[in-house]
């Protein structure tokens, strides 16, 4: 009988919870933050201990991965120290790992890459750090989840409700979640599972912003809110602002990240300046030098592979004994049509400089192609082609298009010398229509060997992907 009464009372309790007074919401929010602060203090102490004893912490992380390997049959016997580990397990690249996982039908390593405790530490310390730098982001009703999958780890599922997230967690489409979020006048931050998904949300918001504000004004999800629609329209005209990445120093203009000595096990492969040659051996966190560049190498317990990620970091500081790094570029995202090497960060700097000289233009996304991929030389010298999506400009004069080539010559002496000799032709600039890079990401996700979410390349190596953008050219 008692169970029957409880079942009858559940709808009433749910209604009362939805209509709880503002003072109860504030109380719940304060209690959640006090609990979060306690957990954060505990995790901060653990962080201090692990970063002060980096060598011991890294050895413990390696032993944890070896003991919990999901493929023990492939595990070489007798690995008890770092030297044996390096000798018995060769370095592999991300593409090789993805191919092996596809053939063996193993779960992707990225899904099991982070141990639950490390995920909890990163989440809690990240939230507290972000709250110190931008306290308005975590006021009640200021944050909204805009992708169907919650980014919160399973170990702290209550935080989304307790901290006053606008959008409820559920299997809704992204557009509905975004529309619900935009209806809240206290909105300060949008939250997604991955940075790529969040980028798609912002790009889509700029592309269909007018449609969404009209839906808010018309009350497609409830009460018409014409004043809120006007606020949204004004904000969209100013363009997007805010934090797009999370680290322990979010107030700094350039993102800096602390490399932790836990799981996954991290090694750093030195980058030889001006060459694509591989270094002889990897280094541990305590062995790196400030201002030097390294490629990240990760080992996790899912596939037990020493995987070269292709991400290049520069050491910019230290936190206790652990390096603080800044991501600079990705190996493999380089342009070369005459043996030169134009890195991703060099081309991006030139492009940003050129866009700054185009009145009213704002760069949303871009991708590069070597002319041989599209067979577009037509008897001319090999060259770079760039497809870009702009806001505020739908056409470019030839004079403005040439500015990108001039900017690239300024930042790359080697490229300039090839241009002066005529060995390389000028960069060709193409504008593509709204949503083109969302379509490109969908095409990347459909590839069998693609990671999840797919990594967005700056240099396209496959002709069908380049042709996809070529078909969406508007200028």
Characterization of the model:
With 475 residues, the protein is of the alpha/beta class. It has a domain at 344-470. Helices cover 43% and strands 14% of the residues. It contains 17 helices and 11 strands. The protein has helices at 2-18, 22-52, 54-67, 82-88, 94-104, 116-133, 159-162, 174-182, 195-207, 209-218, 226-238, 344-355, 371-374, 398-411, 413-421, 436-445, 463-470; strands spanning 91-93, 143-145, 189-191, 257-258, 265-270, 293-299, 306-319, 322-330, 362-370, 384-391, 428-431. Strands 1, 4, 5, 6, 7 and 8 form a 6-stranded mixed β-sheet that branches. Helix 10 (209-218) runs antiparallel to helix 11 and helix 12 crosses helix 14. The chain is flat.
Which terms summarize this structure?
single chain; 475 residues; alpha/beta; six-stranded mixed β-sheet; three-stranded mixed β-sheet; 17 helices; flat; disordered N terminus
Counting DSSP H or I runs of 4 or more residues, the number of helices is 17
Count of beta strands: 11
Residue runs with pLDDT of under 50 for 5 or more positions:
1-14, 101-114, 153-158
List SSEs in N-to-C order: HHHHEHHEHHEHHHEEEEEHEHEHHEHH
Overall morphology: flat
For the largest beta-sheet, the strand count, sense and barrel status come to: 6 strands, mixed
Rg over alpha carbons: 25 Å
The percentage helix is 40-55%
Rounded average pLDDT = 79
The first-to-last residue Cα distance is 73 Å
Structural classification: alpha/beta
Give the percentage of residues in beta strands.
Answer: 5-15%
